[in-house]
Amino acid sequence: MPVKIRLQRHGKKGKPFYWIVAADARSKRDGRFLEKLGTYNPNVNPASIDLDVDGAVKWLQNGAQPTDTARAILSYKGVMLKNHLAGGVRKGALTEEQAEEKFQAWLSEKEGSVNAKKDAVAKAEADAKAKALEAEKEVNAKREAEAAKAEAEANAEEAAEAEVATEETVDAPAAEVTEEASNEEE
Asked: N or C: which end of the chain has fewer CB within 10 A?
């Protein structure tokens, strides 16, 4: 029975979530599997991968063939390296302690690079938020300036209308006086 290590899709439409499984190559993509080795969630940045490294190494040593995507995930998590080091131990090129030491050194280096990526993503996100905030402040300042200008124009128009109204009231008594004077003359 040929065994494959492959991804089994779960999740909803547009939001995939995968199980990493060891399954018979003849079974359906989402069908029966022999063992669940972990999960893969590509919806977050960086993608989250939980994997049973020792279980995956056991299946690889028993002849399971990973698919291309599963191979990339296994390599990313260090399963392929651990399998390679286990082969070296079997051949006598390394001791168990040396192999474990090399694997732990690789894991710490990998963890550092993943944390650097997470920090870079967080920094880029914070920079984007700051840039958006500055742009919003500029827009608000322009709106306030336009509102102040419109208010000043409205006040100037009201003042001009008030002046016209006061001139008309001042001119009206003078006109009445001239009318009275002309009436008296007659």
From this structure: C
Tokens of 175: 């006109």
Interval 42-63: pLDDT, tens: 998 888 999 999 999 999 999 9
Q: Tell me, what amino acid is at 92?
A: G
Compute φ and ψ for 5, nearest 5 degrees. Answer: -100, 115
| Residue 155 φ/ψ region, left for φ over 0, alpha for ψ in the -120 to 50 degree band, beta for the rest | alpha
- Distance separating alpha carbons of residues 144 and 156, to the nearest angstrom: 18
3-state secondary structure 20-55: EEEEECCCCCCCCCCEEEEEEECCCCCCEEEECHHH
Query: Regarding beta strands 35-41 and 3-12, do their DSSP bridges make them parallel or antiparallel, or are they unpaired?
Result: unpaired
- Provide the token pair at 183: 């009436």
The terminus-to-terminus CA distance of the chain in angstroms comes to 132
Distance (Å) of CA 110 to CA 35, 101, 127: 26, 14, 26
Q: Give phi and psi for 150, each to the nearest 5.
A: -65, -40
Length of the chain as a residue count: 186
0.70 exceeded by pTM: no
Question: Residue 183 class from Cβ within 10 Å (0-12 exposed, 13-18 middle, 19+ buried)?
Answer: exposed
74-81 long-range contacts, CB within 8 A, separation 24+ = 74/5, 76/49, 77/49, 77/51, 77/53, 78/53, 78/103, 78/106, 78/107, 78/110, 79/51, 79/53, 81/106
